[in-house]
Amino acid sequence: MPRRAYLLLILLLLFKLVFHFLIIHPAYDLHRDEFLHLDQANHLSAGYLSVPPFTAFLSLLIKWLGGGVFWVRFFPALFGALTMLIVWKLVELLKGSWYAQVLAAVVLLCSVMSRINILYQPNSFDVLSWTLIFYLLALYVRTGTPQLLLWLGAVAGIAFLNKYNVLFLMVGLLPALLISSHRKMFLHKYLYGGLLIALLLAAPNIIWQIRNGLPVIHHMKELASTQLVNVERSGFIKEQLFFFLLGTLVWVAALLGFARYAPFKPYRFIGWTFLVVMAVFVYLKAKAYYALGLYPVLVAFGSVYLEHVFSKRRILGVWLRWLYLPLIMMPTLLFFKRIFPVLEPHQLEQSMTPLRREIFAKWDDGKTHSMPQDFADMLSWRELAGLVVQAYEKVPAAERRNTLILCDNYGQAGAVNYYAGRKVSPAITFSADYMFWFPAMDTLHYLILVGEEPREYVRKYTSGYLKTGQISDSLARECGTGVYLVEGISPVFPKKLRQWQLEEQAAFRAWK
Predict the structure, then answer these.
(1) How many CA atoms lie within 13 A of 311 on its CB side?
(2) Nearest 5°: phi and psi at 185?
(3) How confident is the model at residue 64 (pLDDT cuts 50, 70, 90)?
(4) Between 126 and 505, the higher pLDDT residue
(5) CB–CB of 449/428 below 8 Å?
(6) Nearest CA to 121 among 75, 66, 65?
(7) What is the sign, positive or negative, of the torsion defined by CA atoms of 428, 37, 392, 395?
(8) Are 158 and 201 in contact (CB under 8 A)?
(9) Measured by CB atoms within 10 angstroms of the end CB, which terminus of the chain is less buried, N or C?
(10) Judging by DSSP bridges, how do beta strands 464-470 and 427-429 pair with one another?
(11) Helix segments in 421-507, DSSP class H
(12) Which intervals hold domain Glycosyltransferase RgtA/B/C/D-like (predicted)?
């Protein structure tokens, strides 16, 4: 790699890492999903209801590093930077110049990838895994080195432990490779060695799923009934075009290149994989971001192909290659304050026109709101934790060990544990993985409820309650969430809690 390319790569990677720390306004807390992932470090297991176990062990590393917000935001930014690095190396493998490498990097920076990389969720590593799988396959096609198939199996196994979404990539790769000239790789012992490595890595989680009644099936059914039901197939396709804005031309160019550019002929299986996986996602009415892992490899191929096209246009090509870079950046710069949480929340709300809300603030419930869902999910968590601490301090010191904090959802429980974990007893909920994390409690004298006003099933076992606080920020998704101090707990209540816990756990089993 020329010295110029090395310097550009280093500068772009540094920019990528720093960028994600500069675009989040201090008014925002962590995201509700991040709290759940971070709390998994305190309950290590071979599996979880929400995600496979990779994120939990990464959360343990973050905990060892101090558990601060810096490290929570560092790792998704790092995975985004590593994705850019692999794309850069893929362009080099395809004999693209430094211009094609810069073009690919700019496309990734000025796309939804940068939005994904601000949140500590499995998505950033999922995209990195897909990109690395494609890179290893391209390298195998180029060099024929059989040991690469072992590495392919290792990456696939780790990707499975991060997010089951990688199975859709395998569904696309299988027919794409079988119809290609590379079908002979299925006769290679190293491929099956790689498959064995993948299975060995995935085995603990597969065993956990089987022992727990395959809760992933229940999770998918629940997702389909509550969120995917609001997804339109046409909407899925439209969102793919918005992910990269003017950079869309680059990944579309890759598909054209597979059909028309002779040097890309050995890699046509990548284009077929894209089409198969997209067809499966459209059929299943999947969320649009499930397909993000397909794009970095297309950006690499598209950048090389466009560089080739520009080079054949002489003077016009010179103008096009330099004009296209700022053109890619323009939409991101234009919508920067709505794509990223750089504005104070109420400033962002005031800047949202009806059209902007329709584009940027449509939530999983299919409705249009005042601000993007991810941003609303990053508000008022510190305030909530403070309200819980205030309620907890009203409990006599001698009774705090007999006090339970029960929340309506995993975001509330996780936020309390993250921001107030050392000041109060662990918060739990019947939501997500928390239903497995209830403490053994035979004696219960006080209950702190977070969420809606105590319902009949609680009131019948208590003598009374006091509302001690409420989230008032109208922009927070948790607006109106209250904190209630409940006392006079019946001795029967702990047993009822255990009964309800077991019922909730059983509901997640695919078989009873």
Answers:
(1) 10
(2) -65, -20
(3) very high
(4) 126
(5) no
(6) 75
(7) positive
(8) yes
(9) C
(10) unpaired
(11) 456-459, 493-507
(12) 51-208
| Residues 447/403, Cβ–Cβ less than 8 Å | yes
Please state, as a whole number, how many other Cβ atoms lie within 10 Å of the Cβ of residue 366: 12
Nearest residue to 215 (alpha-carbon basis) of 46, 411, 414, 55: 46
| DSSP annotation of 264 | G
Phi, psi of 446 (to 5 degrees): -135, 150
Helices (H) and strands (E) counted in the chain, each on its own, are 24, 5
- Give the integer Cα–Cα distance in Å for 341 and 275: 33
Q: Give the helix/strand (H/E) hosting 411.
A: helix 410-420
H/E stretch holding 407 reads strand 403-407
Q: What count of Cα atoms within 13 Å lies in the side-chain half-sphere of residue 38?
A: 29
Q: What is the spatial distance between Cα 405 and Cα 292, in angstroms, rounded to a whole number?
A: 38
Evaluate if residue 229 carries a pLDDT over 90: no
User: CA 131, CA 28: separation in Å to the nearest integer?
Assistant: 30
pLDDT digits (tens, 9 = 90+) for 257-299: 999 999 999 999 999 999 999 999 998 888 889 999 999 999 9
User: Which letter, b or e, does each residue of 310-331 get, where b requires 16 or more Cβ atoms within 10 Å of its Cβ?
Assistant: beeeeeebeeebeebeeebbeb
Neighbouring C-beta atoms of residue 70, cutoff 10 Å: 11
Residue 169 vs residues 147, 165, 271, 291, 367: alpha-carbon distances, Å: 21, 7, 12, 9, 30
Angle of the 54-64 helix axis to the 32-39 helix axis, nearest 10: 80
259, containing H or E segment: helix 248-260
pTM score: 0.93
Distance separating alpha carbons of residues 385 and 424, to the nearest angstrom? 10
Record the tokens describing residue 79, joined without a space. Answer: 């995975």
Question: In what order do the strands lie in the sheet containing 464-470?
Answer: 427-429, 403-407, 446-451, 482-487, 464-470
Terminal C-alpha separation, the chain: 58
Q: Is 165 exposed, middle or buried (0-12, 13-18, 19+ CB in 10 A)?
A: buried
